Amino acid sequence: MASLTGLKMLVCSHMQSYDHLSNLVVMRATLATAAFSKTAKYFGYGISRSGSDWCTLYVRPSDSPFTEKSGSHETDKERFSDEIRYVKFSSIGWLGDSGFFYQRYDVTEGAHGAAHEDVAGLETDANENAKLYYHKVNTPQSEDKLVLEDPQNPTHMWSASTTDDGRFLVVTVAKDTSRRNLLKVADLNDSRNAEISSNMCWLDIISDFKHEYDVIDNDDSKLYIHTNEEADNYKIKTFDIASNVWSELVSEEDGVLVEAQIVNSDKLVAVYTRDVKSELIVRSLRDGSHLYRPFDKFTGSINQVTGERDHTKIYLSTTSYTTPGEVLCFDFEELEKRKCIDQASTVFRSAEVNGLDPKEFTTEQHFAQSPDGTKIPVFITRHKDTPKDAPFFLYGYGGFSISLLPFFSPSALTFVKHFRAGLAVANIRGGGEYGERWHQAGTKERKQNCFDDFLASANYLVDNGFARKGSIIANGGSNGGLLAAVVAQQDKMDLIGVSIVDVGVLDMLKFHLWTIGRAWCSDYGNAEEANDFDYLYEYSPLHQAALAQEKIYPSMLLTSAAHDDRVVSCHTTKMIAQLQHTQSEKIKLARLETKAGHGAGKSTEMRIAEATDKYTFAAHELGLKWFN
User: Which family does it belong to (predicted)?
Assistant: First the structure.
């Protein structure tokens, strides 16, 4: 089952590119989304040109390898003629092997040029009136069936998937990036739904935007649903369509229930986070009871769990600040034979990075105290040769209920190793590290908590001898770019020596007018509302920079890209103009990329060049020395 959370993360966060596949699919583009059909007969994938959120969907047989890199139909002989355009913020929801559901917008004829051209993504028009369509494999897009639209609510967005048995078509409806959605289901066994169309018979299970509901799967007419209804840390409920009865299967716990899926016939595997570290719990599908915890000594992030009801194995994609990545395997059949959890748990595959020895680095979790007394988790990673009072790269996000779980960054560790520095990640409020309450504590009029938390984390590094005052490099991207810009202005203790603002939301009075920005009002508020205007203006980086005549900002590097149609580049260009006008004491630069978007659409070479520029800028401004 596809998760609504995936749609929301696309709308509000950095797009996660599939770089390991992109170069095989098309040159100078990004694999924006991908999904295999029910039996893996077909592979559906979306190509984003130059990093734009717009993408074009294609289909090819799964049993034919990619042999060409140009991505054009003329050279990719195995790719079908299907070309599905004007797709944005969409998953590929397969209906068996016959076709799939997707979301698209109406686009003025010719506005995006041909599919292979780099035209889409340069506009700033608001994205409204999304529609849900069904595409049958090996047919032209002109024959696609409109399934759902809502002209009365132009901000609504759609995500569709089918249950594993193919019986139910499940549609979640979002209006913004909040953890609230509507839930609709169509029974495909119903004769009235024999044909996919706009006249299907729908059951509105959830008809108001109060909580989040994601369908995990079903047993006959019973749906298993992951929800935050009266549960900030989430729980699992069941809803029986036949009897119209709700029941609670898995109660809320102190850890955040991130996701769950049904595997090995009657097992429910659930991923929790506790103090920003992942845990895997196996439960009984019958009554939700706790059975056992595989990999109980694992410390890090579980990024993905892969398994099926009719398979006896599950695979976990994991990582940490010092581990490039491991795929772990748990074998239920082996557990039955050996009656030992450890013997059923194996490392399937491990990644290695040339030039970086994980054993040379250590990571510790600390807790800083924000001005209101809230404890803020801070992960601190150092090289064995990192001294006390070192320069420190401090990263944060703090928004949209997105959790910053441990991740591996070869570029950051290279900086740490060769500049005798440290890496700190602050899990500030606004994220989802401690559930919905933690998220809400960093939204709207409470957004100042995010900035206070980050500065408290910086102060903790200095007070406890990890970092030298004035040697902290503040960094974040997107909503984190907003964070890095605001703390540069609010840092009254001169803790920060450099601020690197990646694709930041910097004009808080107009962000909602451009592309998908209006969806962020659930986190930020809307400057067209009097009360919201007051607190947005108080921290809006663009407007505060115009007023900060006496405040000396640290050295700053702002980055953006021409095809960023998530946080449009005028945020950055206006901000750098304002900074260079009012702040001449320390250097202020902007790095504008072409053929790239909101963190996506970049080749490996482009990513290396960007990282080199950012770390070189920081090292130059702080006077750091390179050590071999």
Answer: Belongs to the peptidase S9A family.
